[in-house]
Amino acid sequence: MGHYVLRRLVYAIPTMLAVLIISFLLMSSSPGDSIERRLDLDGLDSYLSRTNYIDAYRLKAAETHGLKPQFYLSVQPSFLSESINNLPTISLRRRAKSLCRETHQCETVVQIWELIGELILSVDRSKENAKLLASLLKLEQSQDLTTLQRRMTAVHPPPADDELQNDWMQLNAAVNKLTHEKKMFYPVLRWSNDNQFHHWLFGRSALFSRSLSDGRSVWDRVGTAVAWTLSMSTIALILIALLSLLMAYTQVKYEGRLIDTILSRFTYAFYAMPLFWLATLAVVFLTTSDYGSWTNWFPSVGIRPDFTGAGVGHRMLDNAGQLVLPIICLVVHEMAYLSRITKRDLLSSSTKVYITASRSRGLSENQVLRKHILPDGLLNYTTVITGAIPALFGGSIVIEVIFNIPGIGRLMLESIGAGDWPVIFAIILIISLTTIIGYLIGDILLMQLYPQTAERVGRHHRADAS
Amino acid sequence: MPVSHLRSDRRLWLLLSSLVLLISIGLLADHIAGSHGILVPFGPEDVSSSTEGFRPPGYVEIDEQGRRLVHHLGTDGIGRDVLARLIHGIPTALIIGIGSTAISLFVALLLGLSAGYFGDDRLKVGVVKLAWIGIVIFLSMFYAREFFMQDSGLGLLVVLVISGISLILGSVVINWLLKQKAITLPVDTIVQRMIEIFRAVPRLFIFLAIYAFIPNPSIGAVILLLGLVRWVAMTRIIRAETMRVSEMSYVRSAELNGLRAYRISVGHILPNIIGPIMVACSFSASTAILVESTLSFLGIGVPSDVVSWGQMLSSSREYIKAWWVAVPPGVMIFLLIILFNSIGARIEELRMHRWS
To answer: Distance from B134 to chain A by nearest Cα, in Å?
Structure first.
């Protein structure tokens, strides 16, 4: 037993690490400039003063490690030169990279952006030539070669006697030098110990601790959402576990009778019915009095927004009535599935030899059902219930969206809409870790309750190895 | 071929012919519901002449030519005919169900057959050959990514062809030239770990994370994503069945006759696990339809110019008194799911009774 638990624990570690790395890489290569958004949250406007902005950006980048490579190992095409890292911001680097991919002349591209930057700085300082500044800022936003060259012709050149003239000539020459001509390239592997992942894992990097959409702490936002989801789905899970067992038991006890048929049809229908349709129908028909006053059973949908700053617990109690219908929808949907599985298992275990033997020993049907069939046939029931524990955290996105509950699923959906990667990452992390732990608990429980089956499954795995 | 047993079952025929009927309705959707449609005089995007939406079923509209046109199932929020959209939703749902199942079947066959047949100790590969395969795969992935980012379709094609040729040619040459030390590849463990990692994140969350990168995927991309995310269940079934069949004497005798692993798995194992695969496929199709409609309901599924039942359902939330927008698309999803599930269940039943 101890050996089994240990082995499962050891197996879980690489899985967790893989999930961690994959979701981190997903997050850190997400579109958008997280440092810029963080500065926006601090109230810094990029057009206020260029010099100050770049300085603030540098500080923020140093604080959050946001400009460092994502991971220990990175693969880059050979035409991307190191000098791209001289550019001060993430978005500038992105634009330069995409232009490098187009032209394969990386040194020139970096030179262009550096020149544009210098020009902007000096024009910005002198505060005279507003037209030139605007066109330069637009030029800096170019994503591809044709746009760059077109915008270049639209730039108002500085006066001929100006000190900017030198930079300007260089810029012009560099832009005209760029062509679509491509060269051969090969992959270059780079290793760096000083990377974002390392700092996040060991140094609690500040880059991922605050939400990008409102600046609140990620764990604060996620924690509130988890509280909503968890309280709702815990109640639902308990009801599902009890009711589906009861239904399966009734169906097996009265097999072939009317009640069995009715329950069977009922579960089949709800099993195939998409959850979001069930919930939509419930909202359409059960929360209004349009179809007769007797259908208006439940309050209209929507948790009241909170202006008083009350705690999650208070708000939940205030809105308890709103949680009834979503819980009913969840229970009906999941119960249909679980009770069908359980009924099938109970029926199949009721045909086993030792059941016949216990009947022939004169045990009553009730005793046989309770003492022999039930304990034997609950294997899949246990698996499904323990498998549902992680779903407690994940909740049901659909239910939360339809019933407007501020839980994890809706937070995830909103964060994706807002590109709020720290929150998305935290949610994926919580859910995947609880899922792995849930499977672990399920397997260990199975080992305790059904040692033979678990042993057989384990042996099956080992048999492949031998 | 044990499949022949299926041909005589009437109930299965009935289910399959209703599927065929649906497919033909889907193919003829433009002729059935369009501006010159046989049944419905509206196309899926035709906006009703009255500017207000949410007209109840039976609403009559008079068009410019003075024709009397009836909206049998009413109109949605911007005045489009619900029945016409319902009919045009059939091809969308079917192509998503069948297309994504085909993709996940391909992945699952590749992984499941090799994991089940080779297990952890039966695939022996020479060290040099393994290194060669690794290098080719790494390089082709690198160049594929670069050419994809540089928008070069020709480059992608060249990468595909060159990597294929160099894989085959390189292996042959290496086998011929070198006497290498062989190592055992734990295929089964690798596949099992992949499954475990995939199962660690709930399916819907994987989709949400992907949609953060591709905000407006085309319908082809949705099919591809659905197929690539949902290979796990099918791989597990195929792996288990392959393991069972690999123990059979005919597979062993084929091995003793010196047949290649490829020949054995395609010629001897695959025909004998086709039953469970068909069952898994029909359940997979119904799940794909369910997942797609859920995603579209959440507003992140197929693009908005494609008619999807999930999208239709989500528009009913704007006006909850419009039951005619909430009920029909749900009924269609429900029926299609039941249809695919029943086909799967029937094949399973027949398999249990006759084949074993």
So the answer is: 15
Residue type, B245: V
The verdict on a CB contact (< 8 Å) between A412 and B208 is: yes
Q: Residues for chain B: how many in total? A: 356
Residues of B in contact with A285 (CB under 8 A): 323
B124-174 residue pLDDT tens:
888 888 999 999 999 999 999 888 888 778 888 999 999 999 999 998 898
Return the closest-CA partner of residue A421 out of A90, A16, A24: A24
Q: How many CB atoms lie within 10 A of CB B191?
A: 20
- Those of residues 293-312 in B touching chain A at CB distance below 8 A are 293-294, 297-298, 300, 310
The answer to whether the complex's ipTM is over 0.90 is no
Closest-CA residue in chain A for B339?
Answer: A272
For chains A and B, CB pairs below 8 A equal: 132
> In terms of CA atoms, which chain A residue is nearest residue B334?
A273
pLDDT of residue B187: 92
Q: Which residues of A touch B297 (CB under 8 A)?
A: 276, 398
- What does the H/E/C string look like for chain B? CHHHHHHHCHHHHHHHHHHHHHHHHHHCHHHHECCCCCCECCCCCCECCCCCCCCCCCEEEECCCCCEEEECCCECCCCEEHHHHHHHHHHHHHHHHHHHHHHHHHHHHHHHHHHHHHCCCCCEEEHHHHHHHHHHHHHHHHHHHHHHHCCCHHHHHHHHHHHHHHHHHHHHHHHHHCCCCEEECCHHHHHHHHHHHHHHCCHHHHHHHHHHHCCCCCHHHHHHHHHHHCHHHHHHHHHHHHHHHHCCHHHHHHHHCCCCHHHHHHHHHHHHCHHHHHHHHHHHHHHHHHHHHHHHHCCCCCCCCCCCHHHHHHHHHHCCCCHHHHHHHHHHHHHHHHHHHHHHHHHHHHHHHHHC
Of the two residues B198 and B77, the one the predictor is more confident about is B198
Mean pLDDT of chain A: 81
pLDDT mean across residues, chain B: 86
The residue length of chain A stands at 466
- Say whether A435 and B201 touch across the interface (CB within 8 A): yes
Q: Closest partner residue to A15 among B197, B297, B326, by Cβ?
A: B197
> Which of residues B90 and A86 earns the better pLDDT score?
B90
CA distance A364 to chain B (A): 31
Q: Give the pLDDT mean for B47-64.
A: 73
Residue A455 has pLDDT above 60, yes or no: no
Show residues of chain A in contact with B139, CB under 8 Å: 187
Phi-psi region of B52 (alpha: psi -120 to 50; beta: other; left: phi over 0): beta
Residues 196-235 of B with CB under 8 A from A: 196-197, 199-202, 204-205, 208-209, 211-213
Structure tokens at B34: 């369009």
E strand residue ranges, A112-229: 187-191
User: Is A458 in contact with A4 (CB distance < 8 Å)?
Assistant: yes
Kindly report, residue by residue over A142-161, the tens digit of the pLDDT: 888 888 888 888 877 777 66
Per-residue pLDDT tens digits for B317-350 = 777 777 888 889 999 999 999 999 999 988 888 8
pLDDT at B137: 94
pTM score, whole prediction: 0.82
* Minimal CA separation from B217 to chain A, in Å: 15
Of B277, B208, B281, the closest CA to residue B241 belongs to B277
Q: What is the pLDDT of residue A463?
A: 37
Chain B: give the shortest CA distance to residue A391, in Å: 8
How many angstroms separate the CA of residue A374 from the nearest CA in chain B? 25
| Chain A residues within an 8 Å CB radius of B200 | 15-16, 19, 432, 435-436
- Cβ of B154 under 8 Å from any chain A Cβ? no
Q: How far apart are CA A344 and CA B257, in angstroms?
A: 43
